[in-house]
Amino acid sequence: MATEKLVVIKEMDLSNNCPECFNQNLKLTFYQKHVYGKLFHRTTNKVTNQIVCNKCGSDIYPAKWTDDIERIFNYYQKMAVPEKSSLKFTTLFYVLIFLFLAIVGTLGYLLYEGILTI
Fold it and tell me: Which of 2, 12, 25, 77 meets the CB 3.0–4.6 Å disulfide criterion with 37?
């Protein structure tokens, strides 16, 4: 089973007012989704975000954003550049491919020489 992990791309403190407690202590975080499996590591191009108030601990959803928060969000969204989408294979993948090719090559040689018959 592949596991998914959100990796932080960019994190910044905002000085905007929280819509819940009106404190000026918000944190904006951008995440990129990574998928880890036994045979591969995939970096996706899916980027998510989260705004949290450090004082009251509440998540600030887009429905409660003020115009100031939306302007700051759009500015920082342009600055949060994700990694390129990629697929990297693990060492286990290459070992299994090598073993498979070695077994097929050995069986082909044995059949060709007549040592092994079907």
Answer: 2
